[in-house]
Amino acid sequence: MSSGSSSEKEKQPRKRKRSTEVEKLEKEMAAMAKKLRLLQQNDIMATDADESDATQSSEENQSPNKVKQASVKAANVNEEEVSSCLGELRENKTSNELDLIDDVALRVSEYLRLGLPKEQKKEILDLIPRKHKDFNLVAPKINAEILHSMKEEAIKRDNFFAHYQDIAAANLALSSSVLSMVLNDQNEPLERSNILKALSDAVKLNAELYRCLNIARKIYITPAFEKKVKAVLDKAESTELLFGDKVTDLISGVKTAETLKKDLLGTKMTGSLNWRGSSNNTVGSPKNQTKKSYFARKDQQAPFTPRQNSSKKQNYRRNYTQSHPLQKKT
Predict the structure, then answer these.
(1) Higher pLDDT, 268 or 159
(2) Where does the record place the region Disordered (predicted)?
(3) Residues 277, 295: contact at Cβ < 8 Å?
(4) How far is CA 253 from CA 223, 242, 258, in A?
(5) 238 and 175, same structural domain?
(6) Residue 192 lies in a domain
């Protein structure tokens, strides 16, 4: 028993020694891990500093006069407060575009370019009610007393204006009827088909009125130009500009066509265009010289001398009658 107890006593200090050694190793390992972490952090910071220096140097080389802007990560920024203090951005401002479906947009663009067919326009205008107890949405006619004293051009111009006024009156009748339907929906339920019909007719008539007024503006401007230039400008398709974006090309095309036509026909103005004489007369011809002496000033004209009966002429007549007996008087 004594031998067994002594062996156990010898084993206990050895276990304690091993545990202390393990603790020392663990502490050393932890210290080394801390050192590695510090080294890694220092390396990361050094690389970030190098990258920032490189970007700054590149920016300075590209634009030395440019002000450096600090990059700040915005988190939960109050946009209303920023806009009230600094104002709204002009470049990033959303444009007020018309929101239309493709089918409606295609038809509106077609109506603006080609207009409504005459039969369809007449049918729409005839079916729209115009008269109300308080007003009448019809273009008024000219009084007969005024019409007799008007010129033909003024009458034609007024007919165009009356047509435009008639289209505007029809649009007003349609829009007011739809508005009345919507406001009175509690008493009378809305009918989708009636509203769609009225709105579609209003869109067609508005597009037609826009196109007619566009043409009328051109008609009042183009008479100041030449006939061929006027014809080209009247057919020019309008964009944001009345005569389109390529009006200089259109006018220059007409001019070049005229010059080419003259070159091909070879029409050259030759000779004099004086109305007193023909174009074939030259300046040095005796005919023109006589005209010059006739139309000369009074101080340059020769003095007037009366005609005298010369004896030579009488002798010539006597000799002529003697040599030709048939010419003698009986």
Answers:
(1) 159
(2) 1-75, 275-330
(3) no
(4) 19, 19, 9
(5) no
(6) yes
Residue 64 lies in a domain: no
Report pLDDT for 317: 60
> What are 223's two structure tokens?
């008479």
63 or 218, greater pLDDT: 218
pTM equals 0.51
Contact 174, 198 (CB under 8 A): yes
Six-digit token string for 243: 């005569």
Given a cut of 80, whether residue 215 has pLDDT beyond it is yes
Instruction: Tell me which residue range forms the domain holding 174.
Output: 108-222
Beta strands in the chain (DSSP E): none
Integer-rounded Cα Rg, in Å, for the chain is 53
* 229/255 same-domain check: yes
* Distance (Å, whole) CA 312 – CA 137: 99
43, part of any domain: yes
Q: How far is CA 173 from CA 34, 136, 170, in A?
A: 87, 10, 5
Residue 289 lies in a domain: no
Alpha-carbon distances of 233 from 146, 209, 252, rounded to whole Å: 35, 20, 12
Name residue 92's amino acid: N
